[in-house]
Amino acid sequence: MVDQKDASKTIKMRRMKSLFRSLALGAVVFLGVQNVNAQQKIGHINADEIFQLTPEFKTANDQLRTLNETKTQELQGMYAEFQKKQTEANEKYRSRSEANKETIDAELQVLGQELQNIEQRIQEVQRVAQEDLGKKQQELLNPIQTKVITAINAVAKEKGYAYILDTSSGSVIYFQGGEDISMDVRSKLGISPDAQPVTPAVPAE
């Protein structure tokens, strides 16, 4: 049976979080510096935050929100159609009697088939919507990812860091010391020091 919450939830961008996490250069970004020793500099950064601070992310986020809303509205319209047919079937069933049962049963059979067809259409629209959102997400976010990684590597090389820890990756459980290169990367990307990250159009799950 079709559920309205499931119809909307299915088209959410579940991979938003994984795309953010793919920014994170693993637990560490290795810059190819040879002869590692205790004196080499270690820095850290929250790559997710930088990603969401870029003006390109805001633009992409707005586009993804609009697409998601469009797909959701389409599904909600189909679900309303399903509910209408379901209500009609229930009313016919309640009016069924010995005198009209053959007529009502025939009508209920038709309505049952219509309900089944609508449910199948909803499932197909959900599948296509999820694919469309995933493709659009990659199209819009992958170039931003590349730009952020390039900026982090450029700052690291300019400042002479051997390693950059990404504190947003989930792999860095504890660190002490090192230098936060966030402001340097912000400057490299033209992001204001006071800028705040944009909330993703669809929360990650």
Task: Give the helix/strand layout.
Blueprint: H1 4-9, H2 16-23, E1 28-30, E2 41-45, H3 47-53, H4 55-94, H5 101-159, E3 161-166, E4 179-180, H6 182-189
Parallel strand pairs: 2-3, 2-4
Antiparallel strand pairs: 1-3
How would you sum up this structure, described in words?
The chain is of the alpha/beta class. It has one domain (4-189). It is built from 6 helices and 4 strands. It has helices at 4-9, 16-23, 47-53, 55-94, 101-159, 182-189, and strands at residues 28-30, 41-45, 161-166, 179-180. A 4-stranded mixed sheet has the order 1-3-2-4, covered by helices on one side. The model is unreliable at 17-38 (pLDDT under 50).
Brief account:
This protein has 205 residues and is α/β, with parallel strands linked by helices. The protein contains six helices and four strands.
Task: Give the overall form.
Answer: rod-shaped
- Give the percentage of residues in beta strands: 5-15%
- Return the structural class: alpha/beta
Give me the count of strands.
Answer: 4
**Strand count, sense and closure of the main sheet?**
4 strands, mixed
Rg, alpha carbons = 26 Å
**Order of strands across the biggest sheet?**
1-3-2-4
Order of helices and strands: HHEEHHHEEH
The helix fraction, in percent, is 55-70%
- Average per-residue pLDDT, rounded, comes to 80
Question: What is the total domain count?
Answer: 1
Distance between the termini: 24 Å
Please, how many helices? Answer: 6
Spans of at least 5 consecutive residues whose pLDDT stays below 50 are: 17-38
